[in-house]
Amino acid sequence: MKKYLFVSAMLCAAMMSASAHASDGTEPDRVQRWAALSHRIFGAAPLSPAGPAVTLDMPAQADDAAVVPLTLRIDPAIHAVGVDVIIDDNPSPVAAKIHFGPAADPTLIKLQVRIDGFTNVHAVARTADGRLLETSRFVKAAGGCSGPVGLGGDDPMLNIGAMKMRFDPVPQPDGAAEATLLIRHPNYNGMQFDPVTQGYKPARYIDKTNIQYDGRTVLSMETDISISSNPEISFLYRKVKDGAFDVRIADTRGGSWNHVFPADR
Amino acid sequence: MARVSSAHATRRTMLAGGLCACCLPRAGFSASSFRMQEVAPGIFLRRGLDADATPDNADAIANIGFIVGKKAVLVTDSGGSLPDGQWLKTEIRRVTKLPIGYVVLSHVHPDHIFGACAFLNEAPEFIGHHKLPDALHIRGAFYRKKLSDEIGAADVGPLVTPTRVIGPEGGTLDLGGRRITLRAHGTAHTTCDLSFLDHQTRTLFPADLLFVRRVPALDGSLSGWLKELGTLETPDAVALVPGHGPPLVTPEAIAPLRRYLETLRDETRLAIRNGRSLDQAIDTVAAGERGNWTLFDSYNARNVTEAYKELEWE
């Protein structure tokens, strides 16, 4: 992985042309790519179409390739233990591996990702009985991986590790509540040019996130360089009296942060 | 495809031969679209197309032009491609033989900077915001590649970086009996917006700090832009030259942009407060502004994304 990032940083310009190539790829190319990629990730285990049990919503054409919203909906009836998000043609395709804990409600997950070129995006749910259920979307976007990082010209490292939890005041139809965790972190992926050093910012991104509620794990997540800077994740939970969130994150440069969010209202 | 590129070569050949684009039977570079107008004494402007970059229009989408003093010419913005800059240079030479002393690079966006290479042989001072060199380092290569994909590599020349930068203290130029003062703005439309005032005609050139009728593109800071808009309303200026839209407007033209940016801010804040996620906000925020702007659907969603990521940390 480290070596790959180094190479990707060194060949940033070359990769832009590589992603332009990807955008010229035909559907058979993409099918072949996914066959190889899924074999690398899941081994010989067979993948089957998820049908309506797992849906993945993304804009067909991303307006901001560095912040592409992604919505996953998983039917609780399939007893998913986790879900993987794979952006086939990104420099490092596995964007997130999410593991559901005992407090999870997999009905709704939202993330924001970077997309480097035209690509299929796959979601693969892992079920308790060992099945792999896949679904995919084709997304047109370009340049999201090398795009600049930062908010309104602020130093992207400002307040690194700061977190915020936002609660949707409107409950889901079934009574579940939606929360969104926001994290300040540049998530440097090794592809952002640094005008000061005339080189590329070394990769530094959040690779581990763990969210607990009322002492039980909602989800834990391993993430890679395809997650947008200042990442956020939305998820569902079942409110309990005085339940509090405990969030732990760690990045690839040894940074780690822990925030406790008191119960909402 | 082959027909398009050969038509391109023809246009370039004719431009190189000194013929203006208005003589050419090209859909994009046509007489009606490209006319240099003297909008005030010594100020010549070309209205950019309300479009995105295509091979047909050679990215000639920004308002560009020049100011003639007694000793020198200032290029107000260079254009969006090599042929766009070459066309501008040809237009200047139809009006004056004075040296082209200054070329303003108003900010980092491609439609304003990729015409600059057409002026390299005139050896002017290329003038930009003190943060423009950083922005060009970060994005220049990316923009160059993207523009080449959009309009064809043959129409994209080298990236030009400023030879003189303007800091927070501002700067002054003398075109010969004609004083220009420059201002480097805080992060607004982008991180590197430069504006300038022609004192003789009291005309302000805010470039893309002011969009008129074409939907604005937010690429810096929403709150910063609203703040910097205030600096455009100055008694020193009776007329303004927006980066996009009609080439010359009165200060009243600032109001619709302020309304759009305030709507974007207020409705994004409301969406965040109501727990709307980014994808939901994109579908609803500022939707009521759709009828007021050209290219609304191409840029509003991106603006909402920028605003959302900025404001959710308030």
From TrEMBL, chain A:
Lineage: superkingdom: Bacteria
Domain Sulphur oxidation protein SoxZ: 172-259
Leader sequence residues: 1-22
Pfam families: SoxY, SoxZ
Boundaries of every Ig-like SoxY domain copy: 40-145
The UniProt record lists the keyword Electron transport: no
UniProtKB keywords: Signal
Protein name in the entry: Quinoprotein dehydrogenase-associated SoxYZ-like carrier
Organism: Acidomonas methanolica NBRC 104435
